[in-house]
Amino acid sequence: MNAPPKAISGVSTFVDDRIGAGNFLKRNLRKIFPDHWSFLLGEIALYSFIILLLTGTFLTFWFKPSMGEVTYTGNYAPLYGVRMSEAYASALHISFDVRGGLLMRQIHHWAALLFVGGMTVHMLRIFFTGAYRKPRELNWIIGILLLSLALLEGLTGYSLPDDLLSGAGLRITQGVAQSIPIVGTYVSFFLFGGEYPGHDVISRFYSIHILLIPGILLALVSAHMILMWVQKHTQMPGKNRTDKNVVGAPFYPAFMIKSGAFFLFTFGVIALLGTFAQINPIWLFGPYTPADISAGSQPDWYMGFLEGALRLMPSWEINFLDHTVTFSVLIPALVPLGLVMTGLALYPFLEQWITGDRREHHIADRPRNNPHRTAIGISGMTFYGILWLLGANDEISANFHVDLYTTTWFGRFAIFIGPAIAYWITYRMCIGLQRKDAEVLSHGVESGVIKRMPNGQYIEVHTPPAEDIAAHIRGKQEIPVLESAEDGEGIPPKGARSAIGRLRAKMSEAYGTDRVPLTDGHHEEAHEEEHAGVGAGDRKELH
Amino acid sequence: MTEQNEYPESSRVPTRVLGTPPADAPIVDSDPIHAPEGVPGVIPQDPVKARKAERLVALLFLITFLAGAGFIASYVIFQVGTIDRTATSNYTLGGTLALALLALAAGLTVWVRQIMPKYNLVQERHEMRSDDETREYVGETFLQGADESGFVKHRLLRRTLLLAAAPLGLAPLVLLKDLGPLPGTALRHTVWGAPTKDGKPRRLVVEGSGQPIRAADFNSPGGILSVVPEGYEEDLNALAKATLILLKFRPEELKSGTNLNWTHDGIVAYSKICTHVGCPAALYEQTTHHILCPCHQSTFDAADGARVVFGPAARPLPQLPIGIDEEGYLVAKSDFKVPVGPSFWERGDAEAEARENAS
Fold this sequence. Notes:
The structure holds two protein chains of two kinds. Chain A is mostly helical. In chain A, 58% of the residues lie in helices and 6% in strands.
């Protein structure tokens, strides 16, 4: 083709005459996007969100967010004639009387699980590769907000159908709200329009679920995308890749089509799940009544860690000046969530404070190359994971024939010991992997060729690593360490004189010191005898 | 665009097939503008492979077409109505939809990977911060504007503006007040304490059937019933506080934690609402007399005043004083002496108060 077809050039001329879009397209059509499998994780969340908006809109056409009582007369025979709320009746109507209704409901639920799941693994990828570092701290904070809002969105969503399971979740939410000191009773009465369960909460959660939170999510997702676009994506270390460039495929045409395909893959897999993997079969649970519950009630997966925290907590309640403070609810409801979310939000700034690193970073770290960060991350995952696992301790107890209280006691200790063990193991693994890297650079890789030396000794011939692998390894960046050494007269630098300053300097040294410096492993000629000790060379210059 | 092809000699560059143009030659000779020749980092595909891939892509797109048509057909053909018919409709609709989406996705992927060139383009990054000159200009403009506006100079203007904003900012919060009534003492009472229409004590009725319970009929030790107040069988607000579990014991099984004055012939009534976060404590183990809440596994000893033996709950399930009316049916003698359900700030040491009132 030598000229664009008339249909396209006509429209684009019209648009460009009016808003000058040409300049934007000139800069952005060939915007470069680097390639790595882990960069797709966030896209899963993005596409799940789009699917949620589409299927959610479909569901609103029939769902009636009302707690008014009706007698069910729909197609699901086992509940025929049963008194229930209009919300539950309309959710049954969607499932059994609307063609494709059950499919859309199940796709909506699966997409929600994948939405939070995608966000979580994407967030872990960002954390472990240090992609939150300057200049991306703002986008990191937006991400944490998105994750927190998604939890709230999920909670308000699965409370809507008003079946026995969703009501149990709502009851726990109410019990937690009521336990907040000073304002708890008022919060609960205002949220539920009086005493629990009242007649208002579903219509209120409905407007929060379909308007307020999705609106904020949409705005934040857009901001997230725009910042990513403006700052350009990070890239993994590799040949010719630096902090000053970005290497990859252009937005038009390759990245565009790739992303479209990935959206369709995500949608296709969620459609498969929604078709063949039954989820939240509300018709089996029956209508909600505060007098009943079924054993083995579980929340959606992303609430599991809060559920586990509630189960682990020993009973502890005090009377404080004639008022009740119930730590057995407050601590599990607030501390794990607070620790995880606040810790994540502050991490970029704490790291900057400790390392004194104010540079821009566009090359992602390999997790092994920042052992303390990776260990902290795995430690946090262990903390979360134990709580999450213990959120299902009744199922574990029933399926694996373990005493129920033993699982609780296990969790009460594991929640403290587990993260510490995980920290140590991860740290050692990172150092081990770094040593392996250093060895590959200085020794080369095993060629599989055994050679006999004149003196009778057998050795295996090592060959230099492939160019791209070597470049990937050499992409390791040093972590700066704060200057804390005393000068000639025994006076430490200004920042390191106070107690906090000394602590900061100590942490900086522990955090940043490179335990396994890469040797300069240039292999101009293939060395046949490689016996130099790992790490014997000079520290590799990184800049 | 400074750097070129990352793998000049690697196998990722297609080897040349006899009779085809060299890998770096334009695919279509007559297209001098868009030919990738001379564009470093754009590595075209082998045309033979690309043609083969095209056939595969076409097949996949065709599958999408058929599956899409199948989706529409399923919508028309398979009606809902019974559980089985809903299942069939769900499987056909979902199956065709998933197939259409996945085939389309696979087609696009093959297109990108085997027909489009491999890209290894390089773009420069620029530091995010603006240069000093710009910063200085913006700073000066800001100060100039602030001066021009008079916001700095006119103190009265500045202060009254802030004053004006304060109540407006609070207005949305004030508007939320009518979301709910104030709690008052609502959490301290249940309908067990409210008098019935004819002034008689309120009967205990079985949840679900609404049958009143004759004490003489509830006579097998180890028996358990879920009980609601007569007249409030379907009032969810009332049930959220007033639901009971009713247990029958042999007299020697009861321990000191249970208030015997509030039992009738070994029949004890506890609040079913867990004192942790309010789930119904619905599981009962006869041999140990343990009541277990399935939500967070708070465990209560029913023979000993429902004291907590395990789990996060901090207080026993409150016991309801019960007796019988002249017809022999179980009734509530009064309301609970302490608030039921989860803790709340205003609750205070209700147990101590109750003891004081009793003595």
